[in-house]
Target: Dihydrolipoamide dehydrogenase
Amino acid sequence: MSSAEQTYDVVVLGAGPTGENVADVVVRGGLSAVLVEEHLVGGECSYYACMPSKALLRGTEAIEEVRAVQGAAAAVTGEQDVAATLRRRDSFTHDWDDSGQVGWVEGAGIALLRGTARLDGERAVVVTGPDGGQTRLSARHAVAVCTGSAAAVPPVEGLPDVQPWTPREGTSAKEAPRRLLVLGGGYVGCELSFAWNALGSEVTLLQRGDRLLPRAEPQAGDAVLRSLRDHGVDVRLDVDVTAARREDDEVVLTHDGGEVRGDEVLVAVGRQARTTAIGVDTVGLEPGRYLDVDDTLQVRGLPWLYGVGDVNGRRQLTHMGKYQARQAGAAIVARARGEEVRVEDWSPHTATADRAATPSVVFTTPQVASVGLTSAQARERGLPHRVVEHPIGSVAGAALFADGYEGTAVVVVDPEREVLLGVTFVGPAVAELLHAATVAVVGEVPIGRLWHAVPAYPTVSEIWLRLLEAFRG
Model:
């Protein structure tokens, strides 16, 4: 075993999108940085989450869009080529080869160290490489923990023994299982149920609660439930799975209503912080917990330590991790230069959008695109609010996009200030409507001003005019 010592301005644990962005920002700000990664540079998003899952879903979505247009529908004469879809998925993950990402890191002037990292007291990290050799890293200014999150496996008797799929296996499987059981009706469970059902699996989705997408507006969960069932997915609500076992090649799940059998079971019931094995105990923190951070992403009580992205548990989305990384990187650079760090809403040094202006898309059929607060969240916060809903299919652009277009737009309005608190779109291709809604929510654009943001005709964006008219009554 060999050992070495290296010093950098910033040491970043985890080379996923969040860690890459922290390192990039600080290097562009004139500091030196090293990324430490034990698996693939590029992280979950590139290899096991956003990119492969959307590649699995896109073919099905494209076929549905064509079939919804008379004349064009006649061109769809066969079924989806499953093998080609999986090959296309593999192309987006580069067959799980990170050499392209490594090239970007090196080109950006960021050092890269392969191995497992553990904190070892203040501003110190010990990295154990693949050969067992150790490198001790010292940070002049900051250590940024960007280790992300891992799939949570619920405490169901026997479940670990059946070797369940997590989203990693759910997005990287080489073939469709004949029967797939899915635990969890959040965005991952719903997306992967759609994906594998379309690729030939007989899918059963088991949701412990009484509706799908429980954090979204009820209209979203209801629409996705109807669509899943229409596409042949067996969705069962209010199911509490109590035990799991394997019988020969079958997975058997026992629940309060009986048993269900499949060939594989996918667990999609949430995430947990990857802080168990990174040495947080050496700096007085409890392993396994999310890092408690302020709005500059600095861990409370440890001014040199930052927790950025999923690891702080605030909003576990790739784009929000990258957003936090940009803000944390700017704060680290400012502090290193001795400049004032502005800790206030919408400061260049703080992450505040994740409180009330987070955009997200569920790439199901229909899509669910949302930003800001739901009506339930506004109510929980005691905010004055009014809910306005309108069918998207009523506008000419939607009718042109798809025959019989079905969709819903829901806005949550602060009636006293007349600004939008939240927006949800449910329908085909509504993800492309989302950024306009995000700008309106983040900018607190007054409804009186939105009247002058004239939507082009005939586009689906005309739904904005209908919503404003409904608000004004």
Notes: DSSP finds 15 helices and 21 strands in the chain. Residues 3-42+98-150+272-353 form a domain with the FAD/NAD(P)-binding domain fold (CATH 3.50.50.60).
